[in-house]
Design goal:
By secondary structure, the protein is of the alpha/beta class. It is built from eleven helices and 17 strands. It is elongated and about 65 Å long. Bound molecules: alpha-L-arabinofuranose (AHR). Alpha-L-arabinofuranose (AHR) is lined by residues 55-56, 58-59, 133-134, 188, 215, 241, 270-271, 291.
Length: 354
């Protein structure tokens, strides 16, 4: 692709010392194995994708969407790197992608800050960087080409507005809520936590405690266990993703308490995965605010525009739904805009691809 001439020259000049093979002016190797993979001079587009990890069902669906989109059959070579929730691993992966002269770097950043240096390196190497899912907080916006993902604060606002309307509809006088946060410093955590904190202030809820569950089931369970020991009056838990909610439900039930509309504690969640919606159908999760992971085709659209010499939108927010147990609240209004709340049914779940 773009770097064919330069890569061919480099191959000739450095043939004796290169670790990876050169053919057709393009070279690449797996970030994990170091194995060489060559495109034989075809129009294959090489994409280096630095993925956060595999901490949640959402993340698995996101990785699958990227892998299905950037497949060999579709004309791509995908170099996939799982950073195991560590920013330093993501930085190393990006540096490997730069060395491999990929055509595009796609980054799903674990946290917002700390990217300036490595993204400057990618820019200096003339490799477009597409940010997906969470956002980066950089001093210079030209360090990335485009971003596509969720409005996490809006997700939190929707959940807050829904809880207020539900409490009114059900005559719940006092909200004693705890927040099992996502990975601290991740956009998904920052936005959802802010949505809750603002709602707690506005509606006068008691926000008893906030602690990270790292977006995992195991940590969500551990955090809920400790919160239940500290507070005996919790009547709502705000889990910042489905896997934390699964862990929290296990902890609540193990403590001899019940979840659900007629239980001791209402469990709120984000993501709306198949398993999350199944728990919403039964009422174990009372509200599930969607976060859509199917970003593969969205990132591909950006790459196609760049390949065609067009300028993609710098920022693209994905439309997302709200799913509830029952139909006590049918819509919420945020900043003058109405968002419908969908009651979960078997039909809704059967249409869920992940
Ligand atoms: O950034 C999106 C969040 O990260 C999802 O809510 C969560 O499940 C994932 O791990």
């Amino acid at each position: 692709m773009k770097k064919k001439v330069l890569a061919a020259m480099l191959c000739m000049a450095m043939a004796a010392t290169l670790v990876v093979g050169c053919q057709g002016g393009k070279e690449s190797k797996s970030a994990e194995t170091g194995d060489a993979a060559e495109d034989g001079g075809s129009d294959v587009i090489t994409v280096g994708f630095s993925q956060v990890g595999a901490e949640s069902d959402w993340r698995t669906a996101n990785s699958e969407s990227m892998k299905a989109t950037f497949s060999e059959d579709n004309g791509y070579e995908l170099i996939f790197d799982d950073a195991q929730q560590k920013q330093e691993n993501q930085i190393t992966a990006i540096r490997n992608f730069i060395q491999q002269e990929v055509d595009y770097i796609v980054l799903a950043p674990v946290t917002e800050t700390g990217w300036d240096t490595v993204l400057q390196e990618a820019k200096d190497a003339d490799i477009p960087v597409i940010i997906v899912d969470r956002m980066v907080d950089v001093s210079d916006d030209s360090l990335f080409t485009a971003w596509v993902g969720s409005d996490f604060e809006l997700e939190g606002q929707k959940a807050g507005a829904w809880l207020n309307a539900y409490a009114e509809a059900k005559g719940i006088k006092e909200i004693n809520i705890v927040d099992i946060q996502g990975t601290i410093g991740a956009s998904a955590q920052i936005g959802r936590t802010k949505g809750l904190e603002d709602a707690a202030k506005e509606y006068g809820w008691n926000l008893l405690a906030s602690q990270s569950g790292e977006f995992t089931q195991a940590k969500g369970q551990e955090v809920m266990e400790s919160m239940l020991k500290q507070y005996d009056n919790i009547n709502v838990v705000y889990c910042e993703n489905d896997n934390e909610a699964f862990g929290a439900i296990d902890a609540i039930e193990a403590a001899g308490k019940t979840v659900g509309p007629d239980g001791d504690i209402l469990v709120m969640s984000f993501d709306s995965t198949n398993a999350g919606l199944t728990d919403t159908l039964s009422g174990k999760i009372i509200l599930n605010t969607e976060c859509n992971p199917l970003h593969g085709p969205r990132v591909e659209e950006i790459i196609k525009k760049l390949e065609a010499g067009e300028t993609p939108d710098k920022l693209a927010y994905v439309d997302e739904d709200i799913f509830s147990y029952g139909s006590d609240v049918t819509s919420v209004t945020i900043d003058g805009k109405d968002y419908a709340v969908t009651e979960v049914t078997d039909d809704v779940i059967s249409q869920r691809a992940y």
